[in-house]
Hints:
By secondary structure, this protein is α/β, with parallel strands linked by helices. The protein is 47% helix and 17% strand. It is built from twelve helices and ten strands. Strands 3-8-7-4-5-6 form a six-stranded mixed beta sheet, sandwiched between helices. It has a four-stranded parallel beta sheet with strand order 2-1-9-10, with helices on both faces. Strand 5 (110-113), helix 6 and strand 6 form a beta-alpha-beta unit. The two termini are 28 Å apart.
Amino acid sequence: MGGRGQAEGEGSHLSELGLAGLRIVCFESRRAVEIAELVRRHGGEPVSAPAMREVPLGENAAAGELARRLAAGEIDVAIFLTGVGTRFFVELAASTVPRERLVAALSTIVTVARGPKPRAALGELGIRPTIQVPEPNTWRELLVAIDAHGSLAGKTVAVQEYGAENPDLVAALETRGAHVLRVPIYRWALPADLAPLHSAIAELIAGQIDVALFTSATQVEHLFRVAGEARAERLRDALGSVIVGSIGPICSDALARSGVSVEFEPEHPKMGHLVLTAARRATELRSRR
């Protein structure tokens, strides 16, 4: 998920009312207020249905192990996949290694930021990532960027995971000869309050939604989990009758696995660009309905 950034400043006047008359369901959680405001700026009516929440892992042995091994000089490469996970790790590591020592250790190894959020989180520590992964910031671009930097053979690589494992990334790193230390920092859980999600599912099935915007693959999984077997097929049919926007390839793959067709991805995998693209294409897409 990205921020509003420059895209809205440059493009909002081009599509100020592009979503006028449309009801837009958004499954974003942490930045639900922000995406709803973006939808309103373009004339749409947001329907907020947070689909997940981030839950830090309580007794996090993996984070402690990474902190200790960093301080001992036993880590060669540290890959940070999310900004939230990077910050959680720093907080968790504080009980094991002093912050100054942790920062010093990270400054002497190869650090990899998958996108702008982990890059910003590392920047808060005064660390400029050695490798910055280009858009759309998937694990495939991450591997290309790492390969361009040098061999991983015989190196110990720590991977800050988020929500769920990425076995493809781990396997690819191991294929390159790396010893991989997986560091799960938090997990995705369903929202504490499921009422908005149930309501959104009902509105989708009733044909009361025009556009559905997804900013995470986990949102797709949770949406169908909450719908349950009884409503899954009707939900799938309903999503086939609305304009579906996806933040990027990983999210689009999750939608495809659920039998949902994606009508558009933004040029840049950021939340603001997602809404802007929806607004710019609304007239075109509506004419096909």
